[in-house]
Amino acid sequence: MSFTVVALYRFAPFDDPAALRQPLLDLCAAQGVKGTLLLAREGINGTIAGSAEAIAAVLAYIRALPDCADLDVKYSAAAAMPFQRLKVRLKKEIVTMKVPGLDPAREAAPYVDPADWNAIVDDPDTVLIDTRNGFEVGYGSFAGAIDPQTKSFGDFPGWWRDHAAEFAGKRIAMFCTGGIRCEKSTAFLRSEGVEDVVHLKGGILAYLEQVPAVDSRWHGSCFVFDERVSVGHGLVEVGEDMSDKEAVFPREGGGPSPAGSG
Question: What range(s) does the Rhodanese domain occupy (predicted)?
Fold first, then answer.
């Protein structure tokens, strides 16, 4: 039996996320779904796995929640269940940045489709920034991307403010695992006065799923938030622990992120 794995998120206004927790937990448990879902006033984020039918039932339920019809979902597969347990947690943020007042649902920068991303990577006048933490970047990244060498996403605002002057007047392109961190980080940059900023739609996972390996600008594999460890093109499980190895791609600069789709 193979398992369907989905990374999902949606910035949406949940007035009472605590009231959503138990019904969602009960449904996932009844369907045999495992993984982690995070609920906050700003929306939902997580990665879960189960049978195709079970995942379809859970996604249908989530899409019926307030403003979640356009839930962002990325599918992959695993030969074995990649999670040991089920968790539905209440959080202050579905991706922790600790910058109050951001509204990614309205303030995030424009997307660049995966099919158009190579032109961004190849453009010498565009500053390409990997918003993931240093542990994740160690598995792989896009050629020439800047690695802020952060330990957590909450460190990114401080890094940006320390280096913003270096990028003044330049176009900024950002990417992350599944897209959610870029929703928030591009909203943050816009709040800091950056006008020309874009991000990769669907994140690295969408790029690896849609762009043929022969055309790829990606080097290495992509760390994911389950026991598969990492995936490559076509979202095929790689699994090798590269966290103690030298990166295999050029980058400027140097523990996993909290559970979620990234």
Answer: 122-216
pLDDT digits (tens, 9 = 90+) for 221-259: 888 766 565 777 766 777 554 333 333 333 222 333 334
- 220 near 242, Cβ under 8 Å? yes
- Looking at the domain assignment, is residue 96 inside a domain? no
If one counts the domains in the chain, the total is 2
Residue-by-residue DSSP string for 29-94:
HHHT-EEEEEEETTEEEEEEEE-HHHHHHHHHHHHTSTT-TT-EEEEEEESS---SSEEEEE-S-S
The answer to whether 176 is a known catalytic residue is yes
Q: pTM (2 decimals)?
A: 0.81
Does 205 map to a domain? Answer: yes
Looking at the fold, whether 36 and 72 belong to one and the same domain comes out as yes
